[in-house]
Specification:
The strands form four sheets. A six-stranded antiparallel sheet has the order 2-1-6-5-4-3. A hairpin with a 5-residue loop joins strand 4 and strand 5. The protein is α+β, with helices and mostly antiparallel strands and 330 residues long. The model has no long low-confidence stretch (mean pLDDT 87). The protein is elongated. Helices cover 42% and strands 28% of the residues. Helix 7 packs across helix 8 and helix 8 packs across helix 9. The chain is built from eleven helices and 15 strands. The protein has two domains: 110 residues, PAS domain (Beta-Lactamase, 2-Layer Sandwich), CATH 3.30.450; 164 residues, Alpha-Beta Plaits (2-Layer Sandwich).
Length: 330
């Protein structure tokens, strides 16, 4: 049985992505996982028996020694030297283990994100859902377009908006609405194929980029997304039923500018919402012309109000029998 435990432990040690070592009472390395070997650039035979302090930098070990003496776990941050002798900050969990009457220490060490990595993640990913944001999505669409040119394929941009999502925020609160959006993002991501990408563009809008091997791939993915969202969201024992509207633009038939393609998909999505939702709509230039005309009319009316250009005319109301004016109407 001990041999079986040792084999299982060694397998876990080698399969973990963390940097893991086991040391003896003198803090010399007795076992090391593959992750640690790759990190320090050493062969296993050359590493075993060497003091761990050659790789793990510690100025004061008092707290660590006290925790191990009291058979408690120690957790903190330490610097490790990598294969290029650079020092990388790690989150470290250290625990005492007894094996066949001998005292050992298990070191589990995970590299911490650098400040630059944290900033980059903040700039490229949505903080609520963890999905790519608009900036990263644009990069992924551009890359998909480049790849599709080489392979003579098309790319579909799907813009998905939740029908009537504001009712959830108004009726159940924004915190509850945020939980729905997080659950929704996870569900949509699991629905997509491996080579498709999804992003949260803001609010209740999620956009997807789909590389199409056949002309109906965009429709197939769109219908899967709509079916997925129709399944109730169970939060705190409460079923939330949602539907969505999806607008679709296609590269290269609708254009080659990423910003315009995304705008076209969003325009088609809004048109779909106005016509009842729970469906999808391909972008058309007629749709664009109607939207532009509506904007022009609204802007013209607003300008006319500001410039006091409206004039009120009255139409007389005439008595048919006498021919006399008996009133007026606007």
């Amino acid at each position: 049985m001990p041999e079986l435990y040792y084999t299982l432990f060694a397998t876990l040690l080698d399969s973990s992505s963390d940097n893991i070592i086991v040391t003896d009472s003198e803090h010399c390395i007795t076992q090391a996982g593959n992750g640690f070997l790759r990190f320090v650039g050493e062969e296993r035979e050359a590493l075993l028996g060497r003091p761990c302090y050659e790789y793990v930098l510690m100025e004061d070990v008092t707290d660590i020694e006290q925790a191990l003496t009291e058979d408690k776990a120690w957790q903190g941050q330490l610097l490790l030297k990598d294969s290029c002798r650079n020092t990388i900050l790690h989150e470290v969990m250290l625990r005492r283990i007894d094996v066949a009457g001998e005292v050992h220490q298990l070191w589990v060490m995970r590299p911490m994100e650098s400040a630059g990595e944290v900033i980059e993640k903040y700039l490229q990913y949505d903080t609520l859902t963890g999905l790519p944001n608009r900036s990263l999505f644009i990069d992924r669409v551009e890359q998909a377009m480049i790849n599709s040119q080489r392979q003579n394929k098309s790319v579909a941009i799907l813009s998905l908006g939740i029908d009537g999502f504001s009712r959830i925020n108004e009726g159940l609160g924004h915190d509850f609405g945020d939980r729905v959006l997080k659950e929704m993002g996870q569900r949509l991501q699991l629905t997509l194929r491996n080579n498709d990408s999804i992003a949260r563009m803001g609010g209740d809008q999620f956009d997807c980029v789909v590389v199409m091997s056949s002309s109906n791939d965009g429709v197939i993915v769109t219908e899967k997304l709509l079916r997925t969202l129709k399944q109730p969201f169970d939060l705190d024992g409460q079923d939330i039923n949602l539907t969505a509207s999806i607008g679709i633009s296609v590269y290269p038939s609708d254009g080659s500018d990423v910003g315009i393609l995304i705008q076209q998909a969003e325009s088609a999505m809004r048109h779909c919402k106005r016509t009842g939702g729970d469906s999808y709509q391909f972008f058309s230039h007629k749709m664009h012309d109607l939207a532009k005309r509506r904007i022009d009319v609204e802007n013209g009316l607003r300008h006319a109000l500001e410039q006091q250009e409206f004039v009120l005319y009255y139409q007389p109301k005439v008595d048919v029998k006498s021919g006399r004016i008996v009133g007026a109407e606007a």
